[in-house]
Write a structure and sequence with these properties.
By secondary structure, the protein is mainly α. It has five helices and two strands. The chain is rod-shaped and about 125 Å long.
């Protein structure tokens, strides 16, 4: 009787041990699967976007009437649309607003002086280079049409050209002005190069 009880107990114990062993094996299998999945995920390439850059490096002069267009592909005249900059800026202190206004004014004066003093000479140079002639009214219209877009273009570069930590405000303002000046030169040159014959100021006789 005693031997049967012991035998029965040992059988039950053996069965329990086998069951536990199977559960442990199953848990080990699941753990290994999880580890493999984690390893696979770590090896997969990830996409990281540090910053987005939008490069609008050209003014577009399509014709002598209407508004000149900024940041468009000069080879696609059908895609000409007015460039508008919309901004929603966070609330900033009065001092920061005043500094931003002073910076904007400094850049505007820089570009405005460039339009007045440099662009007339550039127009004459390009007229000779591309054998085109514009009358004074058309030259004035080109310059004034660019001037109307000046603030929007400045705002664009202020939004998309970050200020380096050690850059002085005056130096940063000069950098922004240079970006706008380069756009102006490209636009004027493209227009003079592709000006239609009927827009030239040549004497038809």
């Amino acid at each position: 009787m005693y031997d049967q009880s012991v035998s029965s107990y040992l059988q039950n114990l053996n069965s329990f041990v086998q069951q536990q062993a199977q559960q442990i094996q199953e848990l080990e299998r699941q753990l290994k699967e999880f580890q493999n999945e984690i390893s696979t995920l770590k090896q997969q390439p990830s996409t990281r976007i540090d910053r987005l850059e939008y490069k609008f490096d050209q003014l577009k002069i399509e014709r002598l009437e209407g508004t000149l267009n900024i940041g468009l592909n000069p080879t696609d005249p059908n895609a000409v649309q007015n460039f508008e900059v919309g901004q929603t800026s966070p609330q900033v202190g009065m001092m920061q607003q005043e500094q931003a206004g002073q910076q904007m004014q400094q850049i505007r004066q820089n570009v405005d002086m460039y339009l007045n003093e440099e662009i007339p000479a550039l127009l004459e140079k390009l007229e000779t280079q591309y054998e085109s002639r514009l009358d004074e009214a058309n030259k004035y219209h080109i310059i004034e049409d660019i001037r109307k877009q000046m603030d929007s273009r400045i705002q664009y570069y202020l939004s998309h050209v970050p200020k380096e930590e050690n850059t002085a405000p005056a130096q940063y303002a000069e950098q922004i002005a240079e970006h706008v000046k380069r756009d102006i030169v490209r636009a004027v040159e493209h227009f003079i190069k592709h000006i239609p014959g009927e827009m030239k100021g040549d004497d038809p006789s």
